[in-house]
Each structure stands twice: as structure tokens, then as C-alpha cells.
Design brief:
Four copies of one chain form a homotetramer.
Chain A (H helix, E strand, L loop, with lengths): L4 H12 L8 E6 L4 E5 L5 E2 L5 H12 L1 H7 L27 H11 L2 H12 L4 E2 L1 H9 L2 H12 L6 H12 L1 E3 L1 H12 L14 H14 L5 H7 L4 E3 L4 E6 L3 E6 L10 H14 L14 E7 L2 E6 L5 H13 L6 E5 L8 H16 L3 E5 L9
Parallel strand pairs in A: 10-11, 11-12
Antiparallel strand pairs in A: 1-2, 1-8, 3-5, 4-5, 6-7, 7-8, 9-10
Helix pairs in contact in A: 1-12, 2-3, 2-4, 2-10, 4-7, 4-8, 6-8, 7-8, 13-14
Chain lengths: ~375, ~375, ~375, ~375
């Protein structure tokens, strides 16, 4: 039996990326280190502004929240990413997701190597810089240099040329969607790497970074994004978008065509579809908890998979993993869903898929929904 | 045995509201209709801007998201609540949480009576208007009239004087903290009233309202509020604040002294303490699901309470309620926490409190944490 | 002999107003009460924003500069006339030439009748209000009411509805170009009416009003207007523009077609042509003084007209008037220009015209330019 | 007989600069090359922003008005001199008097040497750069570098570091008040140097520069300055202010103490006093023409000095010069003022001073005011 998740991701890709001439890819990483991807997953691109949340996390880890907050505010600016706009009194950038704030963050971290090491730990592999991209952006960095000199005038940073060099190197790190979804999953998992189990930042840091992504991650479109997609996210002009559902998954999508906001057009559609299909909205009252699959028990000649919480994407996905990891030991399998709260579309479809695949493999499957009519039908 | 929640709320009140000369109150309502309150719970005050999320919900219900979004944007404005600031092209207010947006919302709803009826359903009792407050605000409504005429100039509303009259009546509805926490719990519960079970708005509407509260509810302080408190909220100049944790609880606090933002000083402290004690932050990766207490079963001569999910405030609170509703039928009681994910401070303290109260009542209590050391010790 | 000025004005009109389907008119009034006009001089239209400088003058006369300046600033706003923009601390309108400032001015004056009386004195005839225009603007006054309520919120004015009523009546006063050029000539003449000789405002008041017209009169185009036209001016959406060259003339032009700034397209062209032909630019180093024609004397059998200062439009125009008022008493006439500073194009052309008309009338005319070659040739 | 002008300037200095611990100086240069100065006239200081009008003139001369206007607007910005504010679409600085505009101007001119040569011609002597000031400003040029990089991002200039280097060298040119009043007098004289008679810029260029000084020269205080002082002016942070009355004089004042706008406090007072005493306001209807003293003639045994125009400062000053250049050839002297228009305070005082000095020198002096009572009494 195979997990249907890759097929689902393929379908998302097919629906959203109808123009074959452009590469497109999608990847998700759950906080218990399950990885799925579809599309041009080998395609490398530069991380660009998607580096900002991680650099901000690193700055908080190294200097503490207060010291960072003294230099960089966390308020949405309602402005485009490259707006020349600082607090008129203090020179503080409005938030770390706009360029001014990211350059200030680079100044606080102090060296590109420090960031590259941190980003590599997050991705779980040594990330490298795309020299050609870096050179070309450094040649046309007038707007970032303007911001940096302004920050230096307000004594937010010391060396503006150095800070821009660092920031542009940071932006030129080369990644693919699986790197990004892994990095995002660390934020989803409260700062602990799902694979290594290493704590890369305090839980409080992850919470603060996600909060800032929620209000400031999508620039002048932050409110609409949160209302309609509901996933803290960050886009980059290379065509990638990362999203994080706390306690659930990190997501990354990629497709180079950009809209007026400098955000991947296809990427936005894929994020919207994931959010809507999977009930991933942050404000969803039935957002599943971590322990969605409660237990597996063998009663007499039946293997019973007991699902609790809401039957959303992540609980269905975890059912599949359990089925693969601990295949039924009896001929009869029971999917016990009587304690499940809400049943979402995608959850229902995936559970039925599990049922039919088990039947294909020769098992007899029964769904137990207690006194209620079977909600999978 | 009594629930320790009222005592906890009393402690929050004592810690935050040290000046006895001012009234202060706090109330929470869970989505399964459990009510707790402390302080001056009988104190009535006007709802003021806390009416805005509910009016916005009503407008979406009546006209649909698209029609409302055409007239009122959902972007944080970074501005004070009474700023004269509309989109310079279209005249659209930045969001429905600032006065311009709330007056536009009133114009869309069309009559104060319609709103009063909706608000009364949310509160579960007939709300009345404070005539004296209304009269006094109508006498000094120049800024709101300015906004309303401007909206009329942009054809966002038709009758500016009527819209301001409606809006000020709406603001003058008289409530107490229990009304407000009940109203907030409907948003937490995806639009269904926890008591009556009546659906008062679509789940999608509740999700959109909460999203807008998250980014725009605390005016020019929205980013900092979300980063540090992490609860979608809305304050009013009467000294109240409502907060909503989706899938969990509605909260309301009250104390009249205001800070520079026009927000209750003590109220903000109470919300911060609740968020931090209860792990209520929206970005908390371990935010509990709805079905935190999995089951109660009687094995031989033991009553076993099986907790799942994370042991946070809401799961501990639900344990208490189950203990009160279905008191143990055996002398020995087992608290089964081996399937619990994370154990928060408040959860641990409340579970231990449950244990000692059971023991006071003559039961023998055993905590079962599986192979692990008992995490309650 | 006739003055060539009307013919010149006709030529300006022909050059600028090539579309015959629209009315167009032009009028000038010198500070020694000489009147010239061309085009549709009988056409009545409403004074609109051209009333603002005069209302501002009246407010200064009645309350004093300090009291008015306390309520209304004099800084260019770089904004369109109807922008909702007041000082964020004090609520002071940026200047009296934008609507906010004009409504505040109306509030300071206190009654429309007071203004109407003042305006009538300036025009030299009883001005009447166009009821239909007033009614129609009052019906669609949302933007002005918004401004007025905002001013009331800041306690700049008391009664916003009354102030807008007053302001719109003021704007609806019906005038023609000759009324306007006469009104403008009072400002040019330091506050004294050229015809009646009555002082209608202090010289200091006229100076202040002209200063504000220079920096704020043409809205967001003030700098370009001053650089290229160089005449303190004020436009109205009815299609009129008034201009004032201190110590020289009041000018008024009219043609209803408006540009993007709400200013008469043909009117702007006429003002530009007048400025350039007549050397009227405020920064022109050779701007003529009042006593351009020094004297007429009869030496033996010659009548000598002695011109001093620069030979610009106004000195040439005054030569013509002197020739008409005191026709030569001898057969030979001498135009003595040896003390003249600069000779402008229009001055040269008009002086030659005077010479040829005198010759047509049978006089022998000699130009005396001292040792220099005759600069009229 | 000596001119009383130096004594008058001394009095202005005494009245305004009461704190002896600070240097102060004042100088005026008429368009017919008469020079007067008082105070610390030898004191050198850097030209700073007072270089801006001259750099702008040079750019117009070299590239033409259109090309310069394409890159730099002429609208008042209502902002402080160092505001980071460009047109959001085009990146055009609002005007050439703020730093952004001045750096753009430097970029258009292309080399500091070209400007230094031009400035030296204007001053009539080789100006040198203060190396120490330049070095120190270059060390702390973050704000200017920010502006320059921003201009480069918008392709207003090519090389931002070069442009700032040029601009700061330009600002570091060392001058005294007499240099500045001479430079200003070229603008007053329509572009022709009063001493050398060389045309250094087209009259049209001088007119455009003066217009921009009038609306933008005094930063966020432009409207108030024009209303109350009425002299196109430009201040520098070194404590100097230059002023120009077209067709009359160039003025320069100096005193290092600065107000909140970065403008010399004592300097502003001196400019105000000059304007008010001398009737120098641009909007003064009686602003004198160039040919204020009409002629000197000897009738029988009387030397008659015939004054025309208004008897203001400049005509009285020219009377003195004529008396010094062509001392009376007869015992009896007549001051013929019957053709004079208005008689200002300062004009009356200076004419009486002339009378009493002539009497001290043994002449008999008679004032002839035609039929009128002698207006000098």
C-alpha cells in the first residue's frame, strides 16, 4: 500500500500549474518528519526573502527578543517589500519581513557565515550560495544600499555596505522545495528539527517568528492572505513561497512567474488550494492536534486503528503512515472514527482511499462510527 | 469537588488589578459551553468597538464576503482607531476594525435593530442600549460624521447621518463580561452558539472575522499583540477586551483605566497572563484540539480518565468538568496521561489540583504516565 | 486714436481659445483703474475657489493675522484642492486655498452676508448668488461636510453644517471676468480700490494674501506655476482664473474646459501668454514701477512724452492712456526713451503702435533714445 | 559725506545679534554693484545649502530647463531638508532645494570643478574648499548616500558615491557674507554680474531659480517665510542665509546659532528686519524699479536731484551714491520728490540723513514736494 499524499500533491500541481513551460514544485514536511513532494523537486532556485523569517529567528536566538525588538518593530507596514520607510523618529524598520528590516537583521547577526550555518542546519544539508545571482544583485543594489545607509544614519546598523553584502549573500542561498519545507517544518514544530530532533531555536522564538510571518509575511497583502489562506507564509521573488501551520506541517511551493506583488502566481494558487482542501486555516476551530491518531490495538482477530481529534489532512496522513509502518496483523481491519470530531473533505477522501487500498491488499475493512451513520460514506 | 478555574481567574484578577478602586472582571466560555468568571461580573458597560467583529460577521452573513470586501478592505492600517484614512483611489476603509470600516459596516447592515437582534442572539439574552451614552456620543460625533460623509462621497454608504446614528447605537449596547465571553465563544466555535447549538454564522464567516481581528483588532499595535499575546482580540474604550482562541474559548476582560491606545491597561495584563499561563498563543505548536479528554472507562474496580492531546488549560478544564459530571464510581481513580503530548505548567497544576481534591473527597488516585516518569510530579 | 490693448487681448484670446464652441473671456484692470477686456465678457459664472483669497483677506481684516494664522496655516500642501488633510496634531488646515482652509475661513468670518458685502465692494457692484448652483452643490457636499466635521472635531470651527452652507453660498456668487479683474486689482493696488479709492484692506493684508496665492494658489502645481508663469493666481472649477501682479494689474480669464487639476485649460494658456508677453513674472528683475511714464512737457513746438523705468506692457499701456487723456498740443511729438531701462518685446511693439497711430492722426513723431541707436527700431 | 547704509546695517546687527559671544555679519550688494557690509565680514564659513540655487542655475544653463525638470521637480515638499522623499512613481526629487534634489543636481552637472569655477565667477574671486569640513561630512554621509543610491535606483543619477562626493565638496566651499551677497546680486540682476557685467546665466534661468527659492528655499517653512519676509531666500546649516530681491539687491547674513529648522536664528531676525525696514517684500505693490533716481540737473544756481518711483531703501541708497559720485556743484541743493510715489520709513529717514549731511558739509538744502506738504518732514 502506498500513501496517496504524493498523488494528491500531483493533483494540486496539475490544477494550479497548467502552463507546462514553467517549472513548478510542491513539498510538505510534517512535524513528525514525514516528507512528500511533487513536480520539479530537483529544481534549485535562490531563497531570496524566504530567508527572512529564519534570519530573524537567528537574531532573536543570539541577541534576545528585547534587543532585536529595540532595532526592528513587528508591525505590518501595508507597504511593498522594497519601500523606503522607517519610523520617522527612531529609524526602526516596521518589521523584519521588509527589506529594511532584513538588512537590519543581517546587521544584528553580524556575519553571513553564521546565517549560512544556521540555514544549513534547518535544511538538514549544507546550503551553497549561487555566486552568479549574488554578483548580479550586488551590481544593482542601489535600493538596498539606500536602506542600509539610512539604517546607519539612525544607528540601527554600523556598516551599511557590509550589511547589504551579507543580506544579498543570504538571499542567494540555493535551495529546492524540499529544503524549504524542511526548514518551515522546524518552525511548525516549535523550533525542534523533525529529523534530527535537535532544538534549533526556543519554542518562544518560533512562536514570535510565525506571528510576524502572519501579519507581515505577505507585504501589502497580509490581511487578505490571512483572511483567505490563513497560513503564516513568506514569499520570495525567485518564485517560492513557504508556509507554516503550527503543530502540523511546513509547506513549500515554487513556480517562477510572479504577480504584481512579486509573489509566485502559481505558488499562491497552490497555497490557497492546500489551505482550503486540508482545512489548514489558522483560524479553523477544528485545527487538529498533534496526536490525531490515538492508538492501534488488536482485539481478538481485528486490528483497530482508533482516530481521535478532527479527521483532517494531517490525521488522515498519519493514519496512512501508521498503516505502512505497522501493517494490520489480522484479516479484518477496523477504522474506529466514533471519537472523531469534524470530518473534512480531504480527510474523508483520504480515509476512503486507505480503506480501498487495504481492500486491494486483501483485507476486510470495517468503519466504526459508533451510533452515528458512517460519516465516511 | 469544585473546579479550580474560578480560583485561577481570581488569582489572575488579583495579580493584574491591584488598584481596588476600579472595577475589574474576567470571564471565559469554552466551546462546549462551560462558563467561568471572576471579579465585578455584574458590572455593565457599553460594548463600544467590541461590537465591530460581530457587526462585520453580520454584514458578511447578509451580503456575502465579496460584496463586503468590495466596500471594506481587510488590511492592517498601522493607525489609531479614529484616523481619517481611506484608500485614496476607492475610498475603501482599510479594515472593519477602525471606525471608518465600522461605519461602512453599519451602512451595509442597514438598521440598528438588525444588529441588536444578532448581538442578543450571540449573548444569549436581550441586550439593551444605554441611552445616556448614546446621546452623549451623538453630541460629539464630529469625527465619525466626518468619516461617514467621506464614505458617502466615495459612495461606500448612502446616508452618513443615519450610518453614524446606527453605529453609535451599536456601540452603546450594554453588556457585562459574561455576555462578551459568550459572544466570543461563538466565534471560537466556528459560528455555532455553544449553548443553544444554533448556527449564527457560517464557519467561513467566523474564520474571516477572526483573521481580521488577528491582524487589525488591536489598531496600531496589531503586530506586537499577535507576537506577544497571540490571541485574536478586540478592545473597546469602555475598558473591555474580547479574545478568541479558535476551537477553544472565548474570553472577556474588563477594567476601565485606559492606556495611550485607548485600551484597558489592566485588561491587557489579564489577557497577557491568560495567554502565557494557558499556552493560548495562536502559534503555539501544541495548541490543543477539541477532543482533549478521550474517554472515561471503568476497568474492574478502577475509574480511568484517559487524557489525550496536550495537557493544556482546556484539557485540564475539561477533565474537571468530566469529574464533576461523572464522579468516579470506584474507590480508585486513574488519571491516564500516557498518550498526552506536551504537559504545560497550567495543565500540570490543574491536574494535580484535581488529584488532591479527589483525595480530599476520599478517593485513591493514581497517575499513569506509561513507561515515563510521572510528568505531573 | 484708440488703445491697442483690446486688440492685443483679442489676439491672446484667438491664439489660446481656438475651439469656438466654448465661451472664453479675458480682462485686465490696472491699479490706476484702467479696464480692458475681450471675448465673452458678459458671460456670468460662479466665483468658486476664486473667492478664497478674498475671504481670507476679510478674515485677516476682522480677526487679525495672528488669530487667523492660529487656525489656518500658510504652507503649500502639495495636494489636490479637496484632499482630506489637516495637521495631525492641531487639525489646522495647511492653507486657506484648499477647501479645508476655506471652510475654516468661512467659520472665522461667521456669516455669508458679511462676505457677500465685502466681495461686492471689491467688484464695485452688488454680486448675487446663483441659487441653482448653490442648491446642487449643497446636495453633493459630502466631502466638504467631512472636512467641516473634522475641523469641528479639532475645534477650529463651531458649526460644521453652517460653515459649509456659508462656504458654498460664497462659491456660488455670480461674476464675470471684469468683476474678477477689478477684485484682483484691489490686491494689486495694496488694498485700495482703484476706482473708488476706498481702502478695503490693509496693505499688509494684501501682501499676505498675495504671498499665500503665490505658494498655495494653484494646488499641487504651485511650484511649477510660480516658476513658469510667475503670477500669484487662483483658479476656480467654473473655469475662471484670477492673477495679480503687485503694483501693476489684476487679471481674470475664463473658459469652462478643465484640466486634470480642475483648472481652466484655455485659462492657463492665456495666463502663460500674458505673463510671457508682458514680462509680468514676479521674479522679473525689470518689473516696472508704478511711475513708469514720468512726465509730459511741451518744449517750444514739441510735445515730449518722457518714459522712465523699463518699457514693459504697463508703461506702454500708460503711454497710450496719457496720449488719449492729453493729446499732443503740437504738430511734432517726441517719445523720449533715453532714460528707459530695458525694452521688452510687448513694450516695443506697443510704442511703435502708438507712433504709427499718431502718424495716422497726422502728427510727426520722433523717438529720442539719447546717444543710443533707437531701440524701438 | 558718507553713506548712512553701513550705519544702518550696524544698527540691524546690534538689534538682532545681542549675544556678543557669537560672530554675526550682514552684507548687501545692489544690482548696480554697490556693496555694503557690517559685523564680522571677514569670517569664513562653508556655503552648505546656499550653494543649491547656484548649482541649480548651472544645471539649467548646461542642460536646459526641460532636461533638468525631467529629473527634478519644482514643488514645495513641506518637508525638512534631509527627508527621504521622492516621487513614488518616478523617483524625482520634489525640488532642487532639498538634499535629494541637490544631489541629483550634482549628478547632472557632473563634476565638482565645473561648479567651483561657476561659483567663483559668481563671487568674483577664486573660492576654495574647506578640506576639514568636507572630510568630516563625508565620514557621516549615510543619509546623503541613502538618497543618492535611491536616485540611482530610479536612474536619476548614475554614480551615487561620486554624486555625494561632488555635493559635499560643493557644500564645503568657503565663503564670507560679501561673497554671498555678490553671488545673490547676480540672481537679482537677471543673471548679469553687477561688477564684471558678464552674463553668467540667462535671465530666464535667474527667474526660474528665484521662483524655486521663493516656494522651496526655506524647507517646511516656505509659506510662512514668503508671507512674512517675502524675499526668495536660501539658508545653510553653517548659519548663513542669502536673499534676493529681483531687480534690487542680493543680501547675505551670517550667525552660527541655529533654530529647529537648521536655520540661523539671528540670521532670520536680520532678514525680517531688512524686509520690513526696506519694504523689500516681493508682494509690496510699491516695490521700486531699477531707475529710481531719474536725473540730476543744474538749473541756474541750484543742483536738482530728481527722484522718481517710490522712495524706498534702494532709491534712497542710490541718491546717496549719486551725491557721492557727483557732488553738488552749487551752494543750493534741491531734493525734488514731487514725482515720488510712496515714501517709506527707511526712505524718509535716509533722505533726511542725506539732507543733514549735505548741510553739515555747508550746502543749503531744499526739499521740493510739489503742491504737497513736504513728505520728508
Amino acid at each position: 500500500m502506498r500513501s496517496p499524499v504524493p498523488e494528491y500533491l500531483d493533483a494540486v500541481l496539475r490544477d494550479c500549474a497548467q502552463d507546462d513551460s514553467e517549472p513548478a514544485a510542491i513539498a510538505i514536511t510534517t512535524i513528525d518528519d514525514s516528507h512528500h513532494a511533487a513536480g520539479d523537486v530537483e529544481q534549485r532556485f535562490t531563497i531570496q526573502s524566504m530567508s527572512k523569517p529564519f534570519a530573524y529567528a537567528l537574531a532573536i536566538e543570539r541577541l534576545g527578543w528585547e534587543a532585536v525588538h529595540d532595532k526592528i518593530d513587528v508591525e505590518p507596514s501595508g507597504e511593498a517589500f522594497n519601500e523606503i520607510s522607517l519610523d520617522s523618529e527612531t529609524g526602526r524598520p516596521h518589521n523584519p519581513m521588509i527589506n529594511a528590516g532584513a538588512i537590519a537583521t543581517a546587521g544584528l547577526i553580524g556575519s553571513f557565515e553564521t546565517f549560512a550555518e544556521f540555514a544549513s542546519k534547518l535544511a538538514g544539508r549544507e546550503l551553497e550560495m549561487d555566486e552568479a545571482v549574488f554578483e548580479s544583485e550586488m551590481d544593482d543594489a542601489h535600493r538596498n544600499l539606500a536602506l542600509a545607509h539610512l539604517l546607519a544614519a539612525y544607528e540601527i546598523i554600523d556598516d551599511p555596505v557590509e550589511a547589504v553584502d551579507h543580506y544579498l549573500r543570504q538571499c542567494a542561498l540555493s535551495v529546492d522545495v524540499r529544503d524549504l519545507s524542511t526548514m518551515a517544518s522546524v518552525l511548525a514544530n516549535g523550533g525542534v528539527h523533525p529529523d534530527s530532533g535537535e532544538r534549533l531555536m526556543a519554542e518562544q522564538t518560533a512562536i514570535q517568528v510565525l506571528s510576524v510571518m502572519a501579519t507581515c509575511g505577505m507585504y501589502d497583502d497580509a490581511g487578505d492572505w490571512l483572511a483567505s489562506v490563513g497560513i503564516p507564509a513568506k514569499s520570495g521573488v525567485s518564485g517560492g513561497i513557504i508556509g507554516v501551520l503550527p503543530g502540523q506541517v511546513g509547506v513549500a511551493v515554487f513556480s517562477p512567474g510572479l504577480d504584481d506583488h512579486g509573489t509566485s502566481t502559481v505558488g499562491v494558487q497552490m497555497m490557497r488550494k492546500l489551505s482550503s482542501d486540508m482545512g489548514m486555516h489558522l483560524m479553523n476551530p477544528g485545527r487538529p492536534s498533534r496526536s490525531a491518531l490515538a492508538e492501534v490495538r488488536v482485539d481478538d482477530d481485528e486490528t483497530v486503528y482508533v482516530l481521535t481529534g478532527d479527521l483532517l489532512f494531517s490525521s488522515a496522513e498519519s493514519l496512512f503512515r501508521r498503516l505502512l509502518a505497522e501493517p494490520p496483523e489480522t484479516e479484518t481491519v477496523v477504522l474506529e472514527i466514533s471519537r472523531v470530531g469534524e470530518v473534512s473533505d480531504v480527510g474523508r477522501r483520504m480515509a476512503l482511499e486507505a480503506k480501498s487500498r487495504l481492500e486491494e491488499d486483501g483485507f476486510t475493512v470495517r468503519v466504526n462510527d459508533g451510533d452515528e451513520t458512517n460519516r465516511l460514506d
